[in-house]
């Protein structure tokens, strides 16, 4: 065990991914505290990430060959991405039984829905590359369905509205995900283009929509845009942390308890259940799929979930405090989860 941990802690790919995340978040924090970033920078950066960089990252991740194992893993991630939210809807209640009314509703919704897209995907991208991003994009299909249906209904007390359905399906990231997913799944049935032999690569045919090979002139700018996702997201997180009073939020014990549940218990539940499902071959997942899911679930409060609490006056102060404390906790715990996942990878259960 010690040798595995030592190997993990000396793996430069893992260490550099962790330090990149932490250092750039700290840079955003510093720039906000020093006034280099205005109070609007965090929101502007997050808009760029959500409307431009992450859609490009999601789409590009599907520009790869399909094989039976990848297809199986993708489908298993999709199934788990739906099942886990149903499980969390039920098991979130026991964690917050001592809280009543709006406070319990808010804590449960904030626990179920983390910042998987904005916080999780950039980290997954930096560690597990296109395969991790593809798994995260597929996993987020279930997340968005429940966030804009159950999350909205629970917090508003209203029935599902048309505008939420539009938000669910007309979101740039969702459009890019489904476009990429369709190309990935159907590439064998599309008109094929001949790709001449190149250095180290034999001549072959690919689907005409595989722009990574058929339209490099289009794929390259998308690659540059995708590369912005991680650094801009981390700068935005740091900038946002820099404008909130940590002292007042830290005095709220409920926020600390919530963060413990969200950042430690929820990912741990995923590890345990997925280990059982893989060992029994009921819903086996690869190591990359497991790691992606755990990192996605070890994320702080989702912006949309916090916005619901503020919009519908469901203990807005608690939501704000919980968002800050969980973000700080996630920054601290993400490196720990990455190390735990690397130790799990050496167990031989996940391949």
From TrEMBL:
Record's subcellular location: Membrane
GO biological process, one term: transmembrane transport
PANTHER family with a match to the protein in the record: AUXIN EFFLUX CARRIER FAMILY PROTEIN, SLR1864 PROTEIN
A GO CC term assigned to this protein in UniProt: membrane
Membrane protein topology class: Multi-pass membrane protein
Organism lineage string: Bacteria, Bacillati, Bacillota, Bacilli, Lactobacillales
Protein name (database record): Malate permease
Transmembrane segments: 12-32, 44-63, 75-97, 109-128, 134-153, 165-185, 222-244, 256-277, 289-310, 322-344
Keywords for the protein's UniProt record, in alphabetical order: Cell membrane, Membrane, Transmembrane, Transmembrane helix, Transport
Organism: Vagococcus entomophilus
